[in-house]
Amino acid sequence: MSRGARRALVPVVAALALAGCTASPVDPGPTTTTSASPSPTATRSATPAPERATLDAATRRDLRAVISRHPDEQVSLAVAPVGGSGAPAVVGRDEALPAWSTIKVPLALAATRAAPDDRSVEADVELALTASDNDAALRLWQGLGSPTRAQRAVEDVLADGGDRRTTVQRRSTVAGFSPFGQTRWRASDQARFVAGAVCLRDAESVTDPMGRVLGWQAWGVGRLDGSLVKGGWGPTDDGYVARQLGVMRGAKGEHVVVTMTIRTSSYERGSALGDELAEVLDEHAGDLPGGRCEGQAGRKDATKSSVSSRSSSS
């Protein structure tokens, strides 16, 4: 697949608004059948540990080969099955770096929940997710109330998806940038969230626009047919950070969550490296840990538009 290609996106996790998910293939986690100190008259069964996602040796080797060709960049990449609740598979150092515009996904879902019939909210969700419009995202944030209430609303969405560790930033820490964009979000926590969030009953309000991002947002996993993505990038004290969360097609109708964080020197270098990593994942799509939401049905195709300009942060 050529790096310059820009293929049509087809929203892949059809009927994501339905709850209940299954995932495979992953290694089974340990299970315990009785408590450590059973009573004389009864035993208690422990809940099996969630299944941990794994990557086969060939996929890891090829991903690391790409990363090794870019010694000046630092990469963290996490992979999980849609519907999975266990720990994602991770390649690289899993750093808690600024979320940038990837936080707009849970923010948009929180805003939609707070005002489900508000057309202006719907319009701002569209702008925030397809064009990464920062002003639209700020309006969504302010519409949730005080900074504390907005923080809690977005954290509630994160928890619903399965990420109960991330704390949303409610105060601006860098002049000129939104507080929520400065949220420190690990690639692994982000993957865990996406794996569960796309199966929530109200997920389609965000997954639909994620399948129609503008062309300049379609780097990395966004270059693959049938993907859902949201990217983010900008300068930090840790260097320039480019990151992306997405869902790509796996094998046999299943779908795979991919999140990546790249510490680099520019958007161009970060997105180009993301393209290379996505190519490897596409080549190994049949070997990735895939899953699905139950009750899927077909959805209409959507084609990405393209624009020529890029902002310094998103």
Question: In a nutshell, what does this entry contain?
Answer:
The protein has 314 residues and is of the alpha+beta class. The chain has helices at 57-68, 104-114, 119-130, 134-142, 147-161, 187-197, 204-210, 267-283, and strands spanning 21-24, 74-81, 89-92, 97-98, 184-185, 228-236, 239-249, 255-264, 290-293.
What keywords describe this structure?
single chain, 314 residues, alpha+beta, two-stranded antiparallel sheet, 8 helices
Task: Describe the fold and architecture.
- The protein is an alpha+beta fold.
- It has eight helices and nine strands.
- Residues 1-45 and 296-312 have low confidence and may be disordered.
- Helices cover 30% and strands 17% of the residues.
What is the first-to-last residue Cα distance? 26 Å
Average pLDDT number: 83
Q: Please provide the count of β strands.
A: 9
Structural category is: alpha+beta
Question: Treating each run of at least 4 consecutive H or I residues as one helix, how many helices?
Answer: 8
Helix fraction by DSSP (H/I, runs of at least 4)? 25-40%
Gross morphology is globular
Radius of gyration: 19 Å
* Sequence of strands across the biggest β-sheet: 3-2-8-7-6
Please render the helix and strand layout as text:
Blueprint: E1 21-24, H1 57-68, E2 74-81, E3 89-92, E4 97-98, H2 104-114, H3 119-130, H4 134-142, H5 147-161, E5 184-185, H6 187-197, H7 204-210, E6 228-236, E7 239-249, E8 255-264, H8 267-283, E9 290-293
Antiparallel strand pairs: 1-9, 2-3, 2-8, 4-5, 6-7, 7-8
